Amino acid sequence: MTGVALGFMMQTVLLAAGPQTYDDAYKQAETNGQPILVLVGADWCPGCRTMKGAVLPKLQAGGKLKSVNFAQVDTDASATLAAHLMRGNGIPQLIVYAKTEKGWHREQITGATSEEAVEQLIKRAADAQAAAKVAKEKEKEPSAAGGQ
Question: Quick one: CATH architecture of 16-132?
């Protein structure tokens, strides 16, 4: 029980502190099994500033980012990592990764977008991850004919 409470407190502290580094978000995803949500952008980009300064903070304040490990990657400060994560050159790119039985499911939105679009992106990642868990559990179940 103490471990669960401590884990919840740590997650709450991390969420309250804002976005993590990509490395921290990835490690956390490996531990807690939640999808990774990454905003790739730059300080000079108007759409990136909209996402960082308005859209994502509103979602975070409303508790809508609790189900993901949220990170930000600056294309100028971390050019190699940004290039590895991005598909295309446009920014901002909001990318979500969900771990499935086939590896990491990836989706993205390019350009500034609405809170609703981000929520739908997160929901699709959660749905992909849930489907993978159900498939994995079904594999573990003994067949009705073979178990008797």
Answer: 3-Layer(aba) Sandwich (3.40)
Give the residue extent of every domain in the chain: 16-132
Helical H runs in 33-114? 46-50, 56-61, 79-85
Q: Cα 77 from chain centroid?
A: 21
Beta bridge partners of 37: 70, 96
Rounded Cα–Cα distance for residues 94 and 72 (Å): 9
What six digits make up the tokens of 37?
């949500």
Q: Among 84, 82, 100, which residue's Cα sits nearest to residue 136?
A: 100
pLDDT in tens, 97-147: 998 888 889 999 999 999 999 999 999 999 988 888 787 777 777 655 555
Q: Token pair for residue 29?
A: 């995803």
Task: For residue 50, report the phi and psi dihedrals to the nearest 5 degrees.
Answer: -60, -45
Using the structure block, give the residue that is written with the tokens 């949220």: 70
- pLDDT tens for 63-88 read 999 999 999 999 999 999 999 999 99
